[in-house]
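Before anything else, study the sequence and fold tokens given here and see whether the fold suits the sequence. Record follows:
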Amino acid sequence: MPLPPVLESAPLPIIGSPLFIISNPNLVIEQCKAGVIGAMPALNARPASQLDEWLAEITETLAAYDRANPGKPAAPFAINQIVHKSNDRLDHDMQMCAKYKVPIVISSLGARVEVNQAVHAWGGVVLHDVINNVFAHKAIEKGADGLIPVAAGAGGHASAKSPFAMVQEIRQWFDGPLALSGAIASGGAILAAQAMGADFAYIGSAFIATEEARAVDAYKQMIVDCDSDDIVYSNFYTGVLGNYLKGSIRNAGMDPDNLPQSDPSKMNFGGGGAAKAWKDIWGCGQGIGAIREVLPTAELVARLKREYQQARQRLAL
């Protein structure tokens, strides 16, 4: 199946994953200008009224960039919507996305028919992130256009399943857009994702260590200094299993190797509760061993593009 035109227009096979608290208009704009589909959670705009301002900034800046660079337009952008019932901002945030006709919506934590229908009504595309094949089937049945298998090693909320298992199972029945997430931080890993059957690599942690990311310097430096041995997988902070930097957990006075289990029924993604309670617990994926310095977004993307081309040449593709 051919990709929808908005996805086909992306210069590079990369989607910058929406980073809770960290993504902001500046990061999204620089990602898009560099050829990457930039993404941001709607909930990062606080108060809710700020989302209107941020979407205006992104759309107007990228439109101006495209006018100035007709031969090399920016990649499209995406907004992440947490569609779990605890998100009491969803209706408002969807209205803002409709106002600006956001080209791509990434939905998380439950697939909802009405969300997909609303996005399709303004001409947008919906990608839904999933942690297993069962949820993948449900997302497509409810009208999502594409899938984001969030495999083992991905930053933040992630599956325990191998990317090989997830992609091969999904590709047995689904030939639509697929963006693979999970420890991807190099050009070679991007090519590997495509070799498995994905259309895009979904990259998050590498973009935390960029100058434009809204993360404190200590967070960025910890990513630079750490590797996969410094990641812990726990559901303690949100009720959903995810990957976090052990150093940030120790700095908060907890033992990362002895965290209690959380009650999944108590998870809360609306109104900023999770952001306030655990703002110093830093999500991060296992791919950070490839990240060795904090860079401007444009330089990071240039490195990924160069490594990707070198990997293709090694395999004579």
Observations:
- Residues 244 and 294 are 19 Å apart (CA to CA).
- The longest strand covers residues 77-82.
- Confidence is low (pLDDT under 50) at residues 270-275.
- Residues 50-68 form the longest helix (19 residues).
